[in-house]
Amino acid sequence: MIDLSVKIGELELKTPIVLASGTCGYGIELKGITDFGAVGAITIKGVSLTPKEGNPPPRIFETPCGVLNRIGLENPGIEKVLELMPEMRKPGVPLIANLHAETVDDFKKLAALCMDFDAIELNLSCPNVKEGGIVWGKDPSLAGRVTGEVRKVTKKTLIVKLTPNTDRLEDVALACEEAGADALSLVNTYQGMEIDLDTWEAWRGGLSGPAIRPLALFAVRRVYEKVKIPLIGMGGIKDENDAIKFFLAGASAIGLGSIMLRDPEAPRRVLSGIIKYLKERNLHGIKDIKGRLRWKD
């Protein structure tokens, strides 16, 4: 019998498939088009203490092998999101609150308000305004500090989402682990840009989709070799083959992101493929393949 369950901190997932923040709204939007029986957890769209309007259009650019987005963390604020909790609970899937803030105090206030969620994910890809605008996830000391301070105010499973846009990824991961993170999710989007050939205007944004999959895989493996806590791997996963590669690289669970924008039935399709792969090799679960790649260079 195939065991697809995963434990992330105190969070029990029936399947290793997590819907990544920003690509599934609050789960409500997927009602009737996504098979939630294949989903282990939903990470809601990022939320802040107060409403944010986000960036003016254009916000999304298609690329040859992915999507560049510059949404700007638009959300209605934590109070409005909490009002949606009854609807968000209807799929019967664990809910992870993705939090973003510009100060440690705001992260702590947000975490304290999220007691009705099953887990908390800190988005460390936003700037710390009190440290000159440096992104939290680029500096190990900043990442460790905010993780440790949030840990003080919540006993919920604490996940930290790492940015790949740093040359100190492993150091940041270790700092978060030492500060009390139960798990890490990686990677967030890679920095990119787009240019309008008529106006010469340019926009910065975060690149996701199949183009980043090899980069994300390498990031997951690098972190897996340094930390002991579980990893949720994500970045360009479009099918079961991509998912299995992340397990082999060291992920305990995988996040579906951009694929959900064009194929909301992806969770069932990917899960079926994972099961088929394991059965064909007489394997009993994800634990049999996690981290077991063999380097050839």
Key structural traits:
single chain, 4-stranded antiparallel sheet, TIM Barrel, alpha/beta
Summary, kept brief:
28% of the residues lie in helices and 20% in strands.
Which helices and strands appear, and what pairs or packs with what?
Elements: E1 6-8, E2 11-13, E3 17-19, E4 41-43, E5 60-63, E6 66-69, H1 78-83, H2 85-88, E7 95-99, H3 104-112, E8 119-123, H4 140-153, E9 157-161, H5 169-178, E10 183-186, E11 190-195, E12 202-208, H6 213-224, E13 231-234, H7 240-249, E14 253-256, H8 259-262, H9 266-280
Parallel strand pairs: 3-4, 3-14, 4-7, 7-8, 8-9, 9-10, 10-13, 13-14
Antiparallel strand pairs: 1-2, 5-6, 6-12, 11-12
Helix pairs in contact: 3-4, 4-5, 6-7, 7-9
Structural class: alpha/beta
Q: Topology as H/E string? A: EEEEEEHHEHEHEHEEEHEHEHH
Low-confidence blocks of residues: none
Could you say what the CATH architecture is? Answer: Alpha-Beta Barrel
Helix content: 25-40%
Any idea what the CATH superfamily is called?
A: Aldolase class I
Give the overall form: globular
CATH class: Alpha Beta
Beta-strand fraction estimate = 15-25%
Care to describe what's here?
The chain is an alpha/beta fold. It has a single domain (6-288), classed as TIM Barrel (Alpha-Beta Barrel), CATH 3.20.20. The chain has nine helices and 14 strands. The chain has helices at residues 78-83, 85-88, 104-112, 140-153, 169-178, 213-224, 240-249, 259-262, 266-280; strands spanning 6-8, 11-13, 17-19, 41-43, 60-63, 66-69, 95-99, 119-123, 157-161, 183-186, 190-195, 202-208, 231-234, 253-256. The protein has an eight-stranded parallel barrel, surrounded by five helices. It has a four-stranded antiparallel beta sheet with strand order 5-6-12-11, with no helix packed on it. Helix 7 (240-249) links the parallel strand 13 and strand 14. Helix 3 packs parallel to helix 4 (140-153), helix 6 (213-224) packs parallel to helix 7 and helix 7 crosses helix 9 (266-280). The longest helix is centred in the last third of the chain and has 15 residues, at 266-280. The chain is globular. It starts with 5 loop residues before the first strand and ends in a 17-residue tail after the last helix.
